[in-house]
Amino acid sequence: MNIRRLLLTSLFALPLTAGFLYAQPSLSAQVGPEIPCSVDTSASAQIDTVAGAPDANGFYTIFDGKTSKGWWQNCLSTHSSGNRTAGGIFRVDSVRGAIYAMSRAQVGGLLSTKKRYAHYEVMFEWWPQFGNDGGLFNRYSILGTGNNTSVASNQMVLDYCSSGCGVFSYYSEAGYPGGRNGRPWSYNSVSSITIPGSGGGAGTQGSPDINDWSKNTSRQNLITGLGPADIGCASTGCVQADYLRLWNQSGWNQVRQVYYGGLSANQPATVTEQGDKIRMFTFFRKHYPLTDTNLTRKQLVNDTAKWVTVIQDSMRLSASQVATYQRVNPFAFQIHNGTRYVLATAGGRGSWYGDIKVRELDSLGVPTYIATSVRGNRKMDHGFRIVNGMLNGSLDLDHVVTITDLKGRQVLRYSGFAGRNLSRELPRNQGMLIVRVKTTLGTQTLRYNSVAK
User: Fold this and answer.
1) For FRET with 429, which of 322, 333, 339, 439 sits at 20 to 30 Å CA-CA?
2) CA nearest 343: which of 102, 20, 82?
3) What is the C-alpha to C-alpha distance for residues 55 and 409, in angstroms, rounded to an integer?
4) Phi-psi region of 201 (alpha: psi -120 to 50; beta: other; left: phi over 0)
């Protein structure tokens, strides 16, 4: 055994003491100045100032790891009411290649994109300190409503703290229609969670399991097609032991959110449900090993982790709600005001964000880059096969699957994440069907007799 392997083995064998769990490195000597408060609402400012080409799956980098280009701090919300001049503390550490966030004496803020988005998917790396309270505000109203302090949004909650906190929950901020407050688990401490969590608000139109992670993970995910067995959980869903296995308590995790729909009063003809629906899916995975404690985010082992479902929900809006609340708007990372943050004055650390990427979708959640980038729609063999009514295969690219009948009428369409041992149930009893698996490389076409024999 070489020295490096011996060192890694020893580190993995260390007990996870409270000090190790909470350990975060300090800011490097190359940390930039605080990102100031501003009101960045002019048309000329609403562009992404980070230049870069999309990756093979259509994700654009919107944080360069060195500067705050493309970002500004909004201090108009209630979270900055204690200090609208300085707001919360957001700083870029160019050595870490990450954004550091910390409350300023119980004052918070919103680190907002300059670019505005309609239907999109966000992916980023995150290392929070236990005790921190934040969120990702989706399509939030920049100037708020009423007295310009209530910033309405659908929030992906990033509450990594006790007393009703639940990471990757779903909350309707400032009276946003729908009344979501789904906490699929709640923290008692850094190493103890309660399932079911708290909240709710899903009613019958969305997921009935929005506040119960076990039930939510017992169902097949609508995007990835993954079920509980794919992430090592029982058929009844994941439990606390699974969460502690899947979540990196002392290092980087990778977060993924899909958010689309809800921008018009009428659905496309392919959607039969009445009204206009917003759909939100959240996922996480342990992206980097516990031994990487210096924030450099070097992968010491190959990343083979699958995306873990947290929330899959839909929310129907009326035409008046769409007109009042829904806009093509920025998204923002939140520092919550008040005491639910590990304050710097008490020796606490903040939250770190890195490798922030966005992929734009159409109104039905399909990546537009994949849908438009295949030149000539060339056919190829991605290795997918249909066995007993299941589409099976492995693919290192995200993909779009379209199923039509012989007359070209669409039966089903969905987008999936890259992964190994993918499996998806196909429609039954609808005659001969054509299944097309599309990636940026090309399209594989299969024929399938869906009539049960």
Assistant:
1) 439
2) 102
3) 31
4) left
pLDDT band at 47 (very low <50, low <70, confident <90, very high): low
Contact (Cβ atoms closer than 8 angstroms) between residue 82 and residue 105:
yes
CATH code of 374-449, in short, is 2.60.40
Q: Where in the chain is the domain with CATH 2.60.120.560?
A: 3-360
Q: What angle do CA 316, 320, 325 make, to 5 degrees?
A: 75
- Closest by CA to 200, choosing from 241, 166, 174, 223, is 166
**DSSP summary character for residue 408:** -
Amino acid symbol at 267: Q
Using CB atoms within 10 A of its CB, is residue 65 exposed (0-12), middle (13-18) or buried (19+)? middle
The secondary structure element, H or E, covering residue 283 is strand 276-285
Is 314 within 8 Å of 278 (Cβ atoms)? yes
More confident site: 45 or 84: 84
What would the pLDDT profile of 340-397 be if each residue is shown by its tens digit? 887 766 667 899 999 999 999 988 888 999 988 887 778 889 999 999 999 999 998 9
Hunting for tokens 């870029």 — which residue is that? 92
Q: Strand (E) positions, 106-263? A: 109-113, 120-128, 132-138, 153-160, 167-173, 181-183, 186-189, 192-194, 198-200, 253-261
Find where tokens 């506040």 sit.
Answer: 211
